[in-house]
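Cross-check.
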Amino acid sequence: MDSKGNNSASIASTPVPRSPFPTILNFRDIESFEKVSSSEVPEHIQQGKKHDAKVRELASEAEPESPIAPTKVPGICYRDISLNGRSYEKKLLKRLRYASLALIALMALGHRTEAIKILGKEVIQPRGLVGQATDAIDSSGLELKQVLSLLADAENYPVYFHCTSGKDRTGLVALILLMILDVPCDIISVDYMASEGELLSERKFRIQELQAMGLSDDFANCPPRWVMDVHEHIIRTYGNFQSYLDRIGVDEALRHGIRSNILE
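Predicted model, tokenized:
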């Protein structure tokens, strides 16, 4: 059963909205969850297609700010919000055991890659993808509120949010957002599971990145119970979803703004 009492047996037959931008890996239009059976194309998608050629032209001219920074397209407003903020990092560091001194020494000497590998192997790997998400739920409320506040402001639309792999931190924001929109958890789960196939073309590269961080190949997957387990953690820890939103400062006014911007 899902959060609204619906039978999860309908998962296999629930359609996943098709991306209007086939060149963007694992793209989703949140608004389309309310229009799965509709032939209407949202206005912002129409405008996105109309200006696609211009955006590509601008992107080809843009220069990264650093060798590892993503290209930023002129004319687009960017907001960098990391769910792996200070509170999240402190939570991970508290779980370090014998490796903590080595980690501190490596960070102090500037060996960040080696330090990240220790953190990945000793802390993140045992937690798994579900633990990684629930740690963010518990520790990154401030950052989640910042994201949701942007989505509550109509002046910011259209909005495109993403992370490195496009399924973990992005998946968590999408889960919280879709729960605010009262989308059943079984439908959210179908969408999350679709990410594994959507990202298949770069799976080999992702696995290499994960291994360099001390993580196993499993972190490139989408666990079947990820959505349900994260949802259950919220209910078990905070009583209900609304209480969690209140705790992180996402009040009814912000929730109403999000619903109005996406559903109306």
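Residues 1-14, 35-52, 58-62 have pLDDT under 50 and may be disordered. DSSP finds twelve helices and no strands in the chain. Passed to J.P. for a second look.
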